[in-house]
Amino acid sequence: MLFENGLLAALFMSSLSINALAVGIFVVVSLKFYRTYFAAAAVFGLLSCGYQYTTWAYHSSASVADALYWVSLQTSFAVAIIPFYFLTLASWSDWPGTRRIFFILLGTAALAILTNALLPNTLRFDSVEQLVSVVVSEQFAYAHLVAKQSVAGLGLHLFGLFMVASLLLCNYRMYQKNKMALALALTVILLIQLLSIGWASAIDAGSVDGLYLAGFVFTALNVVVCVHVAYSLGIFKQRFEQRSEDKKQLTNVINQLAKGFRSEDEDSFYFEMLASLYSISKADLIFLATVSDDSPPLVQTRVALSQGVPTDNFEYTIDNTPCERILEEASTIYTQSIQQDFPSANTSLSQFTAYIGTPIKLGGKVTGLFVLASRTPLPFSNKLVEALEIFATRASAEMHRFQIEHRLRDLAYLDYTTQLPNQAKLIETIHQSYQFDVQSHSNTILLLIDLDRFTEINRQIGYDAGEYVLQELGKRFRLYASENVFFARKAGDEFAVVIQSNDTPPEETLDLHWEAIRAVVKHPICFKDREIRLDFSAGAVIFPQQTHTNLDVIRGAEIALRQSKTEGRGRLQVFDPTLLKALDSQRKLERMLRTAIQKNQQLSLVYQPKVDIEGQCKGAEALLRWEHPNDGSISPEEFIPVAESSGLIVLLGERVIEEVCKQIRNWLNQGWLGECKIAINIASQQLADDEFKPKLLATLNQYQIHPNQIELEVTESSLLHDIQGTVAKLKALQQEGFTIALDDFGTGYSSLSYLQELPLDVLKIDKSFVEKLTNQSASELISSIIAIGLNMDLQVVAEGTETESQVTALANMKCSLFQGYHFGRPMPAEEFANWYQRTNAVH
Question: How far apart are CA 2 and CA 58, in angstroms?
């Protein structure tokens, strides 16, 4: 219907197209420059599109109902436009108080739009009589309502005068900014805006027949703003290109100055800096110098170039030279008159004509200067002066940085107490020695020294005595050190000695220094009238003879030191390379186990039944199995110790507990498990964790498992770390309903005293005893263990029962339960379930 009236459609379509294009431009520019008036103009343009479209639809209406619908929308758009019309022009003009007025207008507009939506004849009319069609020509016709204008409708047109006020305000601002062309364009739009408001009011009052023209005024305003934006962007581009060109020129100068900027060596950095200065200035003499605090101050060059070539450093007093003014001014420039201005100067500068100098400051004080001097007049440019000042500032920062780095390097490599190199310097020295030894096919010795019973000095005499001992040893070791012997404090009471063996066999060199250093250490130390005598244990490694990489050096020496302390104090132990292979194997196994746990793969549970003398299953022990895709089946005897030493046992234990609970829930749902308890092995690290019990109960609660379904097995060795704390934790678990079993009884540190304290329900005889059951002493020991268990009202389980004769003998001793291959091997969950139901059905 909208397109049937050709001329009317063309008129409104062109207006809508222009508005839509303006909105796109405003959105792009707004995203680029983040200005309020660009965003406001985009919203204004979008609302203008809505207003123009509803106006078009209104004038194309075929019924009163259609016309009322579209005029209602048109009215809402007209009201919504006013705040953003104001915001666009006011923010464009930088008028104060814009935001406050905008929000007042926005609130008023929102209230008007809501009222307009609720009224049957819109806000503009009290009543509607008919829809009149006006035919201008065959291609141009339009419709409009004949209605009685309301007071609110008249007020709406008066509200529109805010647009006129905004335009007037903006026009005034543009006139003040001497933007005459823009002010003239806005004046024209202002006049048309006034006419369009009066024209619209006359149409609503029924005085004239005509089209609403306000939308075309909005379009004209959008066009003016777009033209202004394009013009402003053109000017901005020119300014930006000019600034970019200026910046590029200065950047080129600075880049030339800063060539080779990150040189690690301080003097190299300064030489490269001067070379850059020479390349852009061609000055005959360029130097960087420091200024002393003497009176008169003395200038001493740090680096200098003559004709672009490094030259010897020199010095001179600053009096009666152009450098004297640098102490007072930022920069000093003499283009051609040094000899005339300083006739009495008798320095290295007296032969030059042109001069430029700038100060280098540290902490606000002039501590140095840059100088460029030439024998002929030079047109020093402002950009060169600016670049020189910038680089002087940067050079000042570099001087400060180098000073700090030198200080930090000293601190980073020095142990404060002993004044010996520290561990960081030790590692660097080992790395350098290792590279040298590999290239020269020589060997070096690392000797690790650990003072014996040093903690007793701190405890018995005092920490000040310990500190004094370390300081005294530091003095002695510094006196002993030489070009081929390097001492460092590794940590605590541990010291390291790096010894170059040179042409002597390393074993002989080691023996010689071991005895000599031991004599140095054992010499008494007097502290407050007390004589302190020391000794030490040591571990040594010869590298690269005994190691694969430089990373193995310290590790090898530490392994040897641990051996030395284990076998007895005051000993020297040389590293055995085979131990490193075993350690690497253990660490490889740890990495593999960590991966298996994290990916929840390769690890699985099997269940070995525990039965009574009649063969009826009373429970099962959950056992962990590891099937590696490359290395095959890995025994628990291999990976459980690795898990314990690495701390992975806690995470591994949590996975086992969760898997067992999940399996118990499955079996209970199948309705066959009954009172059969499932035993889980608990490591000492798990018991030591205060969160063990809450986590355990949370897991049981998650799978709705009662604690009486679980038996917790602990070993004797796991109890020894904190016997009292462990007893308290086991009692708390037992009170919750868990069964507590002591596994491998008799293989650890058995003591009846602590056995009586433990809250036990089950005592398990280790299979190593059952295997020797035919031995009289072993048989008597087992009989005693069973008797102890029965006397304490404990169930006694014999592990490793593999033969009928073993079962019979143990039964005669009144053993309660049996666990071993004679009754059943460890089985996967499904197989155990079948075995259980089959075995218990028979009985």
Answer: 10
